[in-house]
Amino acid sequence: MGWGDMDPSNGSRLDTCFGVFNASDGHDTVQSSIASPWFSTTFGLIGLCSNLFALCVLLSSSRKLSSQARSSFLVFLCGLVVTDFMGLLVTASVIIPYHFIKFAWAKVDPSCHLCNFLGFSMVFFGQCPLLLGATMAGERFFGINHPFSRSTSVSKRRAWSIVGLVWGFSCLLGLLPVLGLGRYTLQYPGSWCFLTLLPDTGDIIFCLLFALLGIFSVLLSFIFNTVSVVTLCRVYHDRESVQRRRDSEVEMMVQLLGIMIIATICWMPLLIFIVQMVLQQLPAKGQIQMLPMETQKMLLIYIRMVTWNQILDPWVYILFRRAVLQRIYPGLRPRPSIASLYPVLNLSLRRKLTPSSVLQ
Known about the structure:
By secondary structure, the protein is an all-alpha fold. The protein has twelve helices and two strands; from the N terminus they run ααααααββαααααα. It has helices at residues 27-33, 37-62, 68-101, 105-108, 113-145, 156-179, 201-236, 247-281, 293-319, 322-328, 347-352, 355-359, and strands spanning 184-187, 192-195. α3 runs antiparallel to α9 and α8 (247-281) packs antiparallel against α9. The radius of gyration is 24 Å and the shape is globular. InterPro entries: GPCR_Rhodpsn, GPCR_Rhodpsn_7TM, Prostanoid_rcpt, Thbox_rcpt. Residues 50-317 form the G-protein coupled receptors family 1 profile domain. It is found in: Cell membrane. The chain crosses the membrane at residues 38-61, 73-98, 118-138, 159-182, 202-235, 256-279, 299-320.
């Protein structure tokens, strides 16, 4: 029996990844108007090529750097680009063949293993960029506002360890439905799987956990970046430091702001939509077993907005590098001073860290 033929009142739907929407209703029209294989293929190729190009530029830049702070920041950027690239590659390898072949999902994947894998990938590769953005913002916050509270800057090895922790945490989050908390179900128009917006206790908990964690990451990035930008602006307008600027700090903050703005625009509509839908359905207490068509369409729109995050992220680094920024604003030139950024340093230390002493 195909999943489109399942009776909506059948309680067995709660144990499968099928039946959240009725794909037999206007299936052919939906496929021709929404699920264009050429659009999906072009969209995926642009994203993959953008991330590959950004990764090559990052690797080339990392070999020329002597600044440990900048090197660790590039490690986080590499982790972000690799995550975006793998996210596009994994999801496209399932979704694009579906658009061309139009296979019956229930026949190909009756045990929902493929659906669970795709749902896990959507959650894992979706949550990672948000957490990495917050991690990068936090690292720059402490680097700018408390530069000497740590004995040394974050090393490359430690930076990769932090990236690994973010990947591990996101992996555990994505495995929760497989372990029994919530479900991954096939979504409209039948080409992808994601968390389930139904009033089941497990689904509600997992949806709120995913959405609220994402919202928290975005807000944390906003707070950290705002304070860091205010600090940089205050210091750069200091008369004593106007001649000695830390252009690398500006470069990193511009890139962080770009990443944060893109994540906010692409992700916040979906995250807020998930929270709103879940809270609205709480009184239903599991009586609703199929998502309304309007909800299905809105979820698809928001997911497509999220996909743009993986395509635009690499261009933040490609376009907002110091070499590009100096062409736009020639006043940004490398300066040798270190101490001038931090007015809290005592006078004796600032005398030791003069341009002449740094160049010796």
